[in-house]
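Reviewer 2 asked us to include a model.

Predict the structure of this chain.
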Amino acid sequence: MPRASGPLAEALSRRTVLLDGRLSNQLAAQGCDLSGGLWTGRALAERPDQVEAAHAAYVRAGAEVLITASYQIGRDAALLRRSVEAAARAAEAADHEVWVDASVGPYGAVLADGSEYRGRYGLSVRELADFHRPRVEALLAAGPDVLVLETVPDPDETEALLGVLADTGAPAWLSHTVAGGRTRSGAPLPGAFALAAASPQVIAVGVNCCDPAEVLPALEAAAGVTSKPLVAYPNDGSVREPATATWHPPRTGPRWPVAAWRRTGARLIGGCCRIGPARIADLAAECAGLDI
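Predicted model (structure tokens):
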């Protein structure tokens, strides 16, 4: 079956759509070396066949959206294009409809120092827009279905990304990374969500790469300012120590209140760091039951 034939926004108006999990889990399981600043982008540069295989593992688990391996790539247009191509090949080989969504990671992700979980980089909105514009243009030239403006820690970066998006006319969804009921930079969530909600090109808003316990309060804040579909793809609750690249065990249990997320408006549901194909397969079954 070819890639999804209809717009993702249309599907979200009718049902829950299942996202994949983070590629790093599966690539590591496949023996890829993810050390260095590029993270999954290193596999894309050195072993693109393994990136395609990782995408395919999520397709077999039931994922309907594949997020490209471009999160931590700066302005390397060839690698950005390759990220879309690898996901597209896996989508085209699927036995169900699959959308290819191109990841535009935050400025801090390219720094590879954990600053995407702090924000407030000391750059102006214009400087952030100038950084993101060539990345967005390169990804769009490769023909993804939708852009993913993900793990955004700060309303200033949201504003910059939305400004670039407006110049392109492309559809996108945007997700903040949150902690303690605020964005990672400490901004109130309603105002941050309202920025994205006001963009006619943004088809969904929500949260990612956060503790699962943070999801429901954040979705409730989003639902208070928009009727657009919401997005939820947390990590497993572990805490990463950037200096040592190690993880502390999760504080929350393995069960997620997915039904409550959906009642609040979540229609794009999946996993982020340390969530692999097995967990996505479990979510596939759970989300299918919610749409009955």
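The radius of gyration is 17 Å. The domain at 8-290 is CATH 3.20.20.330 (TIM Barrel). We have added this to the supplementary material.
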